[in-house]
Every structure is written in structure tokens, then in C-alpha cells.
Amino acid sequence: MRAKEDHHRFHHKVNMYITKKLFNNPTAYIILLLLSYALGYLSSPKPHTPPPPSRPRAGAGAGAGAATATSNSTIQLPPSLLDNFRVTTRCAADSVPPQLVRQTIIDRIFNGTSPYVNFPPPHISHLLRRRRIKGWGSYGAVFGNLIDKVRPRVIIEVGSFLGASALHMANLTRQLGLDSQILCIDDFRGWPGFRDKFKDIPMVNGNVLLYFQFLQNVIYQNAIDSVLPVPFSSGSALTKLCEWGVVGDLIEIDAGHDFNSAWADINRAWRILRPGGVIFGHDYFTAADNRGVRRAVNLFAKINGLKVQIDGQHWVIHSAVNA
Ligand SMILES: C[S@@+](CC[C@H](N)C(=O)[O-])C[C@H]1O[C@@H](n2cnc3c(N)ncnc32)[C@H](O)[C@@H]1O
């Protein structure tokens, strides 16, 4: 017992001696500080690395963004890259039944009153033409082919301009006796400089009247019961439709044709595609070659293991084929 106490006393004395020496010596003190910092850093828990997002599924409530897929046809990306595709939007768990989609949009966007009521307003009417339509590839065979096949109750068009393709689809669904709603997402601003070629579309205080001419075209073609504008940017509109549970059986992408616009639109639209539905778009073959729409479509398909089909100038992805 006595020997043990002597042993402890001896160790205590040695420790006190070393500590005293160290604190009197600035270099040793700094080395000690650095050593404890390094030891603390190495033993601390590593920063949390979030798991990769889940694979996108068709339909509202679908997981967002791209995934590391397991099939041979898909590419593997490190989680740090996949983080770029993460979105925070929560989509509705249940989708709005097709017969309620029109009223949902009228209630949510137009405060319960159809945009065609009391149209045109007196200060605008003299500026509009009875019909002024112009589109690009708006009457391609792809529209008939897909409508025939999908028989869509809800069509969502991203990029409508003066309504050429939307009104063509309205005609096709009518001919087939389908009760379809066509939602036309467009900010109705065109693009900077577009009036160089469309001088006849008037401007009031710098506000180009595309939206009013679109409504006028729909009225002229007697399609107000099947065509509704959604006059917002594609990003905010697609995000809201997802939150509200508005999904499409057929979705056409034809807004911004640069890579980033097409990429964002395709990813957002995919989340509101009803399972078994079809997403398609124009300008797969353009002067932009593989830098615009085609690059976005191919990258989206590659990451998600989807097959792209071609119909004229259009790209087509059938979710059912890829299910
Ligand atoms: C090529 S036109 C659409 C043509 C139409 N699909 C047709 O064939 O008749 C492109 C349209 O996309 C719209 N647009 C472009 N970028 C947009 C965005 N980020 N949000 C909403 N609309 C956009 C423009 O206002 C323009 O009307």
C-alpha cells in the first residue's frame, strides 16, 4: 500500500515537472497546441454526405432528380454531382382527377373566373386580329400519332406562343371524341427580340400582347372548353402543378431551346407525367446540334435509363416502355 502511494507521488512529481517545463517554453507550448488540434480534427465525425436522390418515377409525388441507377444502360454519378438535381418541391400524394383539372386551374390561377369571360377588354380589342397563328412544326404527324395512342385526358404543353400546336391538338382530340383538357404553360413574352419578326403583334407600354392574341385565337377556333392558358414561367408553373397534383397523360416541351431551359423543363415535367404517359418535344434536330435540346434530352434519358424515340423533328419518351 505504502509502495503504491510512493509510486503515485513519484508520477505526479514527474508530470508537474514536465508541465512546468512546457509552459515555460513557448515553442513546446505551440507544438502541444497544434498536436491537440490535429488529434481533435482527426477524431471528429466526418461531415454528413447526403444519400443520392431516388430514381424519378412518373406521376405526382415522384422522387425528384436523377439517380444512380443500376442497369448497364445508365451512368453512375458521384453523390456530389447528383446533389445538383435535388429539388425541395413536395408534390401532392394524390393526383387531381382529369375531370377536375380545368376547374382546379381556374380556381387556383384565375380566382374562379375563366380567362375567356368578358374577352376582349375594350382597351385591347381593336389591337387584336381575329386570328393570328404562327408555329414551328406545330402540325407534325407526332401529335396525331401520340394522341391516337395515349388518348390523353390531360395534355400539358410547355411553350404555346400563339397556340398553333395547342389548337392542332384540340382539333385532334375533338375528332377522336376525347374529352381532353390542354393546359398551355407560357409566360407569353416570346423571347428578347422576337418582335423583329412579329412586328404585327402589338405592344402596349412595352407589354407585348401575345397572351391576348392567344386567347383570341382559342376563341376564334371555338376551343375555349378544352384549352386553358397557364400564363407563368415554365419553372414556376410546373412546380405548382406538381404541388397541386395536376398531372398530364401527354406533355409537350417546346419553350426555351437552350440546354439549361430544356433540361429544367424536362426534369420538372417528368415529375407530373402520369405513369404510362408520354413526354415529347420539338427541335431535337437543330443548328444547336448537340448543345441545346438534344443534349438535354439525351442526358436525361441516359441518367434515367430511358429510351428516346424520334418522330420527325420531335423526340418522344414513353414512360410505359421504360417502366
Ligand atoms: C417555340 S414557341 C412555342 C411554339 C408552339 N409550341 C407552337 O408550336 O405553336 C416557344 C414559346 O415558349 C415560351 N417560353 C420560352 N421560355 C419560357 C419560359 N421559361 N417559361 C414560359 N414560357 C417560355 C415563349 O414565350 C414562346 O411562346
UniProtKB/TrEMBL annotation:
Keywords: Membrane, Transmembrane, Transmembrane helix. The chain crosses the membrane at residues 21-42. Residues 46-75 are annotated as: Disordered. It comes from the Eukaryota. Residues 65-74 have a biased composition (Low complexity). InterPro entries: SAM-dependent_MTases_sf (IPR029063). This is S-adenosyl-L-methionine-dependent methyltransferase.
